[in-house]
Amino acid sequence: MASITIRNLDDNIKQRLRVRAAEHGRSMEEEARDILRRAMSDAAAPRDLAAAIRARVTRAARAELKLPAREPMREPPQLGRQPR
Predict the structure, then answer these.
(1) Which residues contact 31 (CB under 8 A, 6 or more apart)?
(2) Per-residue pLDDT tens for 42-72?
(3) Cβ distance 17 to 28 under 8 Å?
């Protein structure tokens, strides 16, 4: 198992961690491990941006667009030397 040291931790954060650990009946170290474990498990699955947008837009809010009929392609221009 690896270990880390956290320097320059704000006193307020440390106090809040101590209180939270006491509320859960465990040490500050175990509380910090649990917080990190939860944060990393939430971030483990990559998000699909398109799916997230589709999920936020309700069916009623989506616009139904009528696409125009396609026309045949025109002939491409002839590039190169033109006769004089």
Answers:
(1) 17, 20, 21, 24
(2) 655 667 888 878 777 777 677 788 888 999 9
(3) yes
